C-alpha cells in the first residue's frame, strides 16, 4: 500500500490544483495495484488520454455538480485545454471509462482500506433510491428491463422504478462499502452482502432494519451487533449514552447521503446501460471518498467530510 502517511498534497488554490492532486493520487495507486496486463493492454498506445487522466476527469466532473456531461466537456475544452490538450471526443471518452469499471473499483477499494485503518469498529448502514426514469414513463421505458424494479421510498412516501443504493459508512461518514440492488430488495436482506467481509463490529441502522431473526443471526454467525433506535416506551431500551450515539451516527450517514444526492447527483445517474450505470455510480462514490482522503492528507481532520469546502473553497 502507498505510504499515504508521508504523502505530499499541495494546497488547493484553484480547480487546476484539484485536478493535479486527484491525478497524482489516482496515478500512483494505478501504477501500484493495476496489473501490467491491463495497463499495457492492446492499443493502449493509441489512446489520447491515460487511464488515470480519464478517471481524474470523471471524478472532478462529479465533484463540480455538473449534471450534464456535455456541459462539462465543453468546460474542459474551453478552460482546461492546457491540462488535457488531447481530450478527444466525448463518445470515445465514455466508452473507455466504462471499460475501466474494474480499475475504478480497485482504486476505490485501495483508498477505502487505507481510510478504514483509522476508523473504529462501528459502521452505519442505510439505503437510498436511485430512480432511472420518471415513474409515469417506467412502463414504456426500455432501459434496464429485467434489471431494475419497482420499489417504495418510505421517507418520500413514493413508489419509483430503478435501483437501491445500500451503504456502510464509518462514524465520520466515509463510505466504506456499498452495493446496488433492484429497488424491491429489502434493506435487511442487503445487510449480509454489505458486511460479508466483517466480523466483530457494531452496525447502526434505523427502524427499517428491525427484524427478529436478523439481529440474532448476525450476532451468532459474524459477532456483529446490529443497533437501532427503539421506541421511547420500549421496556428494553438502551442507556442514554448509547441512544445519543445512535442518534448522532444516524445524522452522520444522512449527511453523507445528502452529499451523494445533492452534490454528486447519485439519484440522477443518466445511463442507458447497466455497465454505464454501475461505472458512473462507482465514480461518484470514488469522488466522495477521495475528497475525504485529500482532506486527511492536507491535515483537515476537523473538516474531513467537508467536500464542498474542498472543491469550492
TrEMBL record:
Species of the source: Romboutsia ilealis
Superkingdom of origin: Bacteria
Domain Transposase DDE: 119-270
InterPro entries: Tnp_DDE_dom
This protein's name: Transposase IS4 protein
Amino acid at each position: 500500500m502507498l505510504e499515504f502517511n508521508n504523502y505530499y498534497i499541495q494546497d488547493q488554490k484553484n480547480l487546476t490544483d484539484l485536478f493535479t492532486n486527484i491525478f497524482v493520487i489516482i496515478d500512483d495507486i494505478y501504477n501500484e495495484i493495476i496489473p501490467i496486463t491491463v495497463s499495457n493492454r492492446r492499443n493502449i498506445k493509441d489512446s489520447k488520454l491515460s487511464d488515470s487522466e480519464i478517471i481524474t476527469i470523471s471524478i472532478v466532473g462529479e465533484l463540480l455538480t455538473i449534471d450534464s456531461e456535455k456541459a462539462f466537456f465543453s468546460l474542459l475544452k474551453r478552460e482546461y485545454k492546457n491540462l488535457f490538450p488531447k481530450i478527444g471526443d466525448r463518445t470515445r471518452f465514455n466508452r473507455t471509462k466504462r471499460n475501466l469499471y474494474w480499475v475504478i473499483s480497485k482504486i476505490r477499494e485501495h483508498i477505502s482500506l487505507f481510510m478504514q485503518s483509522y476508523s473504529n469498529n462501528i459502521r452505519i448502514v442505510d439505503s437510498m433510491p436511485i430512480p432511472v426514469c420518471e415513474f409515469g414513463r417506467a412502463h414504456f421505458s426500455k432501459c434496464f428491463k429485467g434489471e431494475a424494479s419497482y420499489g417504495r421510498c418510505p421517507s418520500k412516501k413514493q413508489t419509483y422504478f430503478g435501483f437501491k443504493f445500500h451503504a456502510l459508512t464509518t462514524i465520520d461518514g466515509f463510505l466504506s462499502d456499498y452495493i446496488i440492488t433492484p429497488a424491491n430488495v429489502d434493506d435487511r436482506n442487503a445487510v449480509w452482502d454489505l458486511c460479508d467481509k466483517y466480523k466483530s463490529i457494531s452496525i447502526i441502522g434505523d427502524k427499517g432494519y428491525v427484524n427478529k431473526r436478523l439481529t440474532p443471526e448476525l450476532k451468532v454467525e459474524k459477532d456483529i451487533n446490529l443497533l437501532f433506535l427503539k421506541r421511547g416506551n420500549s421496556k428494553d431500551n438502551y442507556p442514554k449514552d448509547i441512544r445519543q450515539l445512535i442518534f448522532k451516527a444516524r445524522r452522520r450517514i444522512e449527511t453523507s447521503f445528502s452529499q451523494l444526492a445533492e452534490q454528486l447527483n447519485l439519484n440522477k445517474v443518466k445511463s442507458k446501460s447497466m455497465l454505464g450505470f454501475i461505472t458512473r455510480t462507482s465514480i461518484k462514490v470514488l469522488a466522495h471518498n477521495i475528497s475525504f482522503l485529500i482532506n486527511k492528507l492536507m491535515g483537515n481532520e476537523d473538516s474531513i467530510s467537508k467536500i464542498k469546502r474542498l472543491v469550492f473553497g
